Amino acid sequence: MVLESSDQPLVDLYDLVMLDLDGVVNIGDAAVEGAPDHVARVRRSGVHVAYVTNNASRTPAAVADRLTGMGVDVQVSEVVTSAQAAAHLLLEHHGEGARVALLGGRGLHDALAEVGLHPVAVDDDAVALATGYGPDVVWHEVMTAARRIRDGLPWVASNTDLTLPTPDGSAPGHGALVRLLSEFSRVEPEVAGKPAPPLLEETIRRVGGTRPLMVGDRLDTDIAGGRRVGVDSLLVLTGVTGLGELIAATPELRPTYVAHDLGGLFEVHPAPVHEDDAWTAGGWRARVDSGRLTVDGDGHRGDWWRAVVAAAWEHLDVFGEPVDTAGVVPLLATPER
């Protein structure tokens, strides 16, 4: 399995671009270099834009305000959160007006209320429990939720992200709490956020589009999430995924396309070609000899990644282990030629 081919810019092939946030549009409190201009260019092309986040603590309005402050053009209606996806699941299961116990923050509370559910305290009478990251959640509420889950209360979790970014670096995310609750109760929740399907399904339902493209920087959430709902995906290399993670990706984690950043939406993506014992793309040639990857040639950095990925995935599929990349320097910062 190799990357797919596009002989047209991706904005000409898809009518909805679903953008993950951290690592794609922004890194912390700053926009990714070039991202505001790329988003504006997508808009001028007439393609729908959605901003998709597993973070359930912020409301869509708060997310939109934050992105606007970074210079990104965004409307509140274009922001879709895992809290909204969780609320839609609970509405489908229990109907409007249902009382839902809440363990989380403002974003989850408002999402439940928006669809006509009635959020209540974690120890109040309720037909289900919704959980999400909330910085002010206290331990006695966690204990109460754990006991109620163990005793049979239906449970929807906004996401299972083990970490979240903070100004001081990575910190435990909602997934750490989900793991604790699950281990205590011996119950797995219904999950709304990526890579589970509900969040991307909610995004398509809210924003529109018949040919969506998921754009993300994480293989295990963004790309796997796209695969689970049957939509193509573009992996950008401005976030957490680098050469090591990409060459070790198993089929369910592999993107349709790879690009350095959101500028890849305006590029063609020719598929690499297998020639003799190597994979070629543009002016680059990648091959694996005795488990070691070698790359030679010159040209567009996108072609470098396409050739390398094809050679690495072929080796992984045949031998079951990633290639040795010692001495291979990823082509990221080199200017386009």
What does this structure look like?
The chain has 337 residues and is of the alpha/beta class. The protein has 3 domains: 10-54 and 196-266, Rossmann fold (3-Layer(aba) Sandwich), CATH 3.40.50.1000; 83-191, Rossmann fold; 273-319, no CATH class. Helices cover 33% and strands 22% of the residues. A 6-stranded parallel beta sheet has the order 5-4-1-13-14-15, with helices on both faces. The chain has a 5-stranded parallel beta sheet with strand order 7-6-8-9-12, with helices on both faces. A 4-stranded antiparallel beta sheet has the order 16-17-18-19, covered by helices on one side. Helix 3 (82-94) packs across helix 4 (106-114) and helix 5 crosses helix 6 (174-185). The longest helix has 19 residues, at 301-319. The two termini are 28 Å apart. The model has no long low-confidence stretch (mean pLDDT 95).
Question: How is the topology of this model organized?
Answer:
Blueprint: E1 16-20, E2 26-27, E3 30-31, H1 35-44, E4 48-53, H2 60-69, E5 79-81, H3 82-94, E6 99-103, H4 106-114, E7 118-120, E8 128-131, H5 139-150, E9 155-157, E10 163-166, E11 169-172, H6 174-185, E12 190-191, H7 198-207, E13 212-216, H8 219-228, E14 232-236, H9 243-247, E15 257-259, E16 273-275, E17 278-281, E18 284-289, E19 292-297, H10 301-319
Task: Provide tags for this entry.
Rossmann fold, 10 helices, 3 domains, 5-stranded parallel sheet, alpha/beta, 337 residues, 6-stranded parallel sheet, 19 strands, single chain
